[in-house]
Structures are given as structure tokens and as C-alpha cells.
Amino acid sequence: MTHYKAKIIITVISAISVLICGMILTWYQVISLEQRRSMQTAYKTLNSVETLLDEAKNTADQASVLLSEPCSMQVRTKLERIVISARHIRLIAFYKGRKIYCSSFSDMDAINKSYAGFINSSLAIVKNNTVSPGIDAIVLQTQYPQGIIVTSLSTAWISEIMHFFNAQHHMDLLIDNDIKSSGASLLETGYVIIKSKKYPIAVSFYSAFNIFSYKFITDGWVSLLLSAILSIIVGVLLWRYILHSPSLYENLSKAIDRGEIIPWYQPIVHSNSYGTYGVEVLARWISPSGEVISPENFIPLAEQSGLIIPLTKKLMAQVGKELPEKLEGQLQPFHVGFNFITAHLQEPEFLDECRAFIKKFPPGTIRLTAEILEREPFERVSQLKETLRQLQENHIDIALDDFGTGHSNLNYLSALPIDIIKIDKLFINGLSPDSGSQKIIDYVIEMAKTLNIKVVVEGVETQFQVEYLKKKRVDYFQGYYFSKPVPINKLTLR
Ligand SMILES: Nc1nc2c(ncn2[C@@H]2O[C@@H]3COP(=O)(O)O[C@H]4[C@@H](O)[C@H](n5cnc6c(=O)[nH]c(N)nc65)O[C@@H]4COP(=O)(O)O[C@H]3[C@H]2O)c(=O)[nH]1
């Protein structure tokens, strides 16, 4: 995965994580708000029903003074008055020994028929009763030392209360046995049950998550919107300021465009006269602060990313501008070597680029050398061979760079048309009066001679190395002993 792709993934994941966290928080907020509201509605519903039952209880209390009296006309009239003066009460009845014996309603048989089945319940709903046909009654029993009083209310009042509060949140009223029979299973299925402390009633409501899903949008849209905005901000900030700090690739690409990569030159000299045979062009990155950045710090990336091709083209253009006037009076043709990757050589327009470069110099004054830099084993050698042949036909020399360090340099020597080999400085480093590395160098030089290939030895630093290599009839030297790579204004040609 590229660095760029990784940045995109990190940015997107971070932004989505912020959004998901925001959604979870909103969800939690909406649910807790909704549960609080449902709880409040449940308590209000319960209080309202309790107030009704309080009225029934108060009515019974008022009537309780009559319990010790026989059920005379007077007592009945008093009971009727009590009922009439109460707002929601429909009936008061006294009973003893499982039978109603006195009531505000004159038809005792009808009352006994309707209420007989509910004698054991302290609170019950009496449906289809004959006392008030078509209207269900809620019946409260209150025990006194002298007997039991039954007060009845129309369920219409309770329905009204439930209807009013259900408009806010759906509530169910559980009465006496309902609580015992269905309470546990309700709780298991996500219901909340609020029980009254005064009466055997309870209010239940559903609190499972799915009931709140539409509320997630209606109540939570502000925080959802804020989360979305925050996730975008996090994404943008991450991208622009934290992750998107320019990479070496971007910096290098800009540096090439701005012309910060410039050619430096290292002379290559004839081994016999020390006169300049030519130069190798080596890239240097001059940062805006003037710091000289070594190619080791950017060439590997440039080669890997393909930026090396535009970089090399820029160097060629610059060399074409500044080198010609330096060459007056030089031995001709003057060798100008560039490091090319093989992919560049094989571009269809490469030959035209070389021709355009050569044209910047007076005819016949330079000899362009393509130094092949192939760090990987060559693939498609036959295709490369063809390309190199074509270059040679166009008077471009082919030099095999860093000879001795690659994977299969010897294979290339036999497979490719090579004019020059450049023995790597690694071998020369070991060349001192007391070293044993001469044998390898001797062998390489001999082999090159046999194959009629010219030899440039790189990294020549000492007098000993010069004298030794001269004796071995090396063709050219390149190294600090003669000159380090320098910018054009410091280039001195012998
Ligand atoms: N210690 C020591 N070093 C010596 C001596 N003589 C020459 N050198 C160094 O050896 C390197 C020779 O270039 P190279 O083998 O092509 O090795 C080059 C080449 O592979 C690559 N490079 C530089 N410029 C370019 C370019 O424009 N294109 C490409 N593709 N590669 C480049 O970067 C490598 C390093 O370049 P430089 O740092 O300029 O290092 C240069 C040069 O400064 C010496 O006597 N002693």
C-alpha cells in the first residue's frame, strides 16, 4: 500500500469513527431522554388514577359511618347523596358475608349479580354489568371494622386519563391480578412497570430500543448534524495538517518542477595524460536554504517512483544550457555521461531527447554516454540489447556503471553491447600497498581488455591507486584525487 493510500484510509477511518461515536452518543442521549419522559408520563398517569381512587376511598370513608346502621330508606338516601356529591363515583354498596345488603342503587339483585364475581378483589374492573349496562366499572373495596364498602367508578374516567397521557407515550394500566399474572413476563420483554404504593395498580410502558428509533432522527438531529460536521472537520484537519505533511515524494516532485535539482560535474581523466576525457553528470538537490542534498537521499526514491525520468530530463536541459561554453579548447569529442535507468532508455522519445541534447553543442564536440544504472537483475535483456544497439548507431556510448557490485554484471557483459565499464569505488577502496584486492581488479581489467571494452575506475583517491592502475593500463580515472563533483562555476578542465 502506498503512503498516499494509507493517508486516505486513516483520514476516512478517523472521520467515520468520529461520526459513529457521535451517533452512539446521540442514540444514548435520545434513549435516556425518552426513558426519562416515559417515566414522568408513567408517574403522572399513576398519580391521576390514584387521585380517582382516592376519591372512591374518601367516598367510602364518608359512607363508613353508616355501616353500623341497618339498611333503611334513610341510609340509602344518605348514600345516594354522597354519590351525587362525589364527581366521579357511580355507586356505593355495603356488603357482609359475601353479599351486598345496602347500596345507593335500589336494585340489589342487579348489584349482586354484577359484583358477585369480584368479591375477593380489592380492586377490579367489572365488565358488562347490569347496574350500568354498556359502561365498564372500576370497583374499589375498602375494609372497615364494621364491614366492607364497595365504591364504583366508570372506567370512562380512567380511559380519559390514559388517552390523555398515551398521546405522549403509550402506557398500559395494570390492575391487581394483572400485575401478578403478567408483570414478570412484561419485564422480560422490555417493559417498565411502575407500581402504586397506595392501590393495587401499576402503569407499564415499553422501553426497548426499537421504539425510539424514529426519535433518533426527530430528537437527535441536532447532535447528528453536529457529529457529521465534526467528522468532516476532523477528516479535513487530519488530511491537511497532520497526515498530509508533504512527503519526500511531494517535496522531490516540487523540487524538480522548481529546478532545485541541478547538475554537478565530476571530471573523468585520461590515465596517461591526466587530461580531461569528459565528465559524469551527478544530480544535487539545492534546498531553498542553500543546503546541498546528496543524491543518496533522493535518487533511490526518484528511481522507485519514476520521478527519475523528469529529473534526468531537467538535468539534460540544464547541462545543455551551461556546459557548451566550458568546452572551448577541450579535447574532442568530450565525453558527457548521464546515469539513466533502463526504463528511460526504452521510452520511444528517448533517442530524440538525446539528439536534442547533442544539438546544444557544436557538431562533433561531445560524445554522450549512457551510464546504465540497473540495480535489479535485467529483465527482457533482448529488448534492452536492441535499444542499446540503436543508441550506439546514433553515436551514444554505453557504460556499465558500478561494475562488480550488481547481481549479474558478467552476464550483461556478454549479453549487451557495452563500450565502457566503470569499476565501482568499492574495489578501489581496498586497493592499498598492503591489500590483496589487486587480483580482482587485475582480473576485471584483463577481462575488459579481452572484450575490447574501455575501463573507467571510479573512486580514485590516492597516488598509490593512480600508479597501480596506470601500470594495469586502465583507460580513465574518476575520483577525488583529481576532482570531487562540482557545480559548473567551479568546474576546471585540464
Ligand atoms: N568516496 C568517494 N566517492 C567518489 C569518488 N569519486 C567519485 N565518487 C562518488 O561516486 C559516485 C559516482 O557516481 P555513481 O557511481 O554513478 O553513483 C551515483 C548514481 O548512482 C546516483 N546518481 C547521482 N546522480 C544521478 C542522476 O542524475 N541520475 C541517476 N539515475 N542516478 C544518479 O547517485 C550515486 C551517488 O552519487 P554521488 O553521491 O554524486 O557519488 C558519486 C561521486 O561523488 C572518490 O574518489 N571517493
Q: Rg to the nearest angstrom?
A: 52 Å
| The CATH top-level class label of the largest domain | Alpha Beta
What is the helix tally?
Answer: 17
**Silhouette:** rod-shaped
Enzyme class: hydrolase
Keywords: c-di-GMP, Cell membrane, Hydrolase, Membrane, Transmembrane, Transmembrane helix
EC number: 3.1.4.52
Subcellular location: Cell membrane
Task: Give a quick set of tags describing it.
21% strand; binds ligand C2E; cyclic-guanylate-specific phosphodiesterase; membrane; cyclic-guanylate-specific phosphodiesterase activity; eight-stranded mixed beta barrel; transmembrane; TIM Barrel; EAL_sf; five-stranded antiparallel β-sheet
What do you see in this structure?
Keywords: c-di-GMP, Cell membrane, Hydrolase, Membrane, Transmembrane, Transmembrane helix. The protein has an 8-stranded mixed barrel with strand order 9-10-12-13-14-15-16-17, surrounded by 4 helices. A 5-stranded antiparallel β-sheet has the order 2-1-5-4-3, with helices on both faces. It is built from 17 helices and 17 strands. It starts with a helix and ends in a 16-residue tail after the last strand. A hairpin with a 2-residue loop joins strand 1 and strand 2 (99-103). The longest helix is centred in the N-terminal third of the chain and has 61 residues, at 3-63. The model has no long low-confidence stretch (mean pLDDT 87). The chain has 2 domains: 3-210, no CATH class; 248-490, TIM Barrel (Alpha-Beta Barrel). It is of the alpha/beta class. The structure holds ligand C2E. Ligand C2E is lined by residues 266, 282-283, 294-296, 299, 308, 312, 315, 339, 341, 373, 401-402, 425, 458-461, 478-480, 485.
